Amino acid sequence: MEKDHREKKIKGDDKRSKMERDESKGKARQNERVNNLKRNESDKEIGKGSTDETNNDIKKDGENEKLSKSKRSKRIWGVEDVEENEEEKRNPVIVRMRKDEKDEKVKKSLERDRNINDTDYPTIDREIIRSLTPEMANEMKVRGIIFYEDLGKGTFSIVKKGWCDMLARMVAIKIIDTRKDLKYTKKCLPREIELIRKLQHDNIIKVYEVIKKNPYVCIIQDFTSRGDLLQKIKRKSKIDEREGKIHFRQLIEVMKYLKSVEVVHRDIKCENILLDSCENIKITDFSFARLLKKGERSKTFCGSRAYLAPEIIRAQPYDGYLSDMWSAGIVLYVMITGMMPYNDKDVKKMLEKQLQHRIAYRRTTEISIDAKRLIYDILHPIPQKRLTIEGVLRSKWLAGVKYRILVQTVNDSITTNSDKPT
Length: 422
What we know:
Elements: H1 2-69, E1 73-76, E2 79-82, H2 86-90, H3 93-96, H4 104-114, H5 134-142, E3 145-153, E4 157-164, E5 169-177, H6 182-198, E6 207-213, E7 216-222, H7 229-236, H8 241-260, E8 263-264, E9 273-275, E10 281-283, E11 290-291, H9 310-313, H10 320-337, H11 347-355, E12 359-362, H12 369-378, H13 389-394, E13 405-408, E14 414-417
Parallel strand pairs: 2-12
Antiparallel strand pairs: 1-2, 3-4, 4-5, 5-7, 6-7, 8-11, 9-10, 13-14
């Protein structure tokens, strides 16, 4: 009996200890679940807090952006005087349009965007010099041509600075790879070569020779030591009106000459206006130029977006001489203000402003009423109401400004050649 009682007691103790162990495990699991729930709730609170902070930051950024875009303006002949924000004070539009070009990939992208025709005419490879055929390399050697640094890069070509023994002077060598685009090679290039051989004017870049060795065409032309007009504007922020009158008068004289020989340029812009050692302008790049008889209309969609007349953007047949005048008006605006009149990143908005005949100026821009009036009359959205060459020459801003070429004298001072026609 005593033995049976002892065995029952041991079994009872085993059951109690097992129950206690099970109870302990149950409490541990419950505590773990509670802790997990607390951690999840804590994570949610943290996530909610960070999301709220992010939304607040976005909201603040949006409010700041709205504030930065608010401007006051008043109308003068349909011309707006705009108060610039802090960013515009520090960076004129010309510089601001190019502020992302530090990145090489962005630079290439912007270069494609600036030229309307890049989908049809891909830009040439900058390493073209390294792949010249033996025949072309031999031609360069015979003429004693030595290549130096790059001067510029166009849609179809690369321009190098060089020395020519035969001419005994520095030259610019425009190198075109005819394999890059058959459409340009067959249509535009022969026309360009024909025109540049015939055109003779003090303010048009002089071409000495055209060398053809398939697949390359090399155009040997004058080297201009002062770069292009856009580079000058960027160096000086803007060009004062007195100096601008000389440049613009020379540009109008070139356009007058081109019209007399029935040629339209169709790509007038600051980058295509070079400056010689005496600061005379030299028009270059006749890639889009063509013969155009009186009354004839052009249908080709070409040029640089920021300088395009509204009728070209709208794909209408256009008078090439009047569209060139529009481009000249943009050049004048950029020269004396140091910024672009229209933002070409959004073509739809740009066209809307053009058709509304709206031209904006920063309040701090010092510009004469006569200059504003001239720009306003040149940038008329209706081609038939746009100022012609004769109208520009009669304007108050250019009245009394004679056409002249600046020349270097013996004592290195710059003077004018008064023998040129007015």
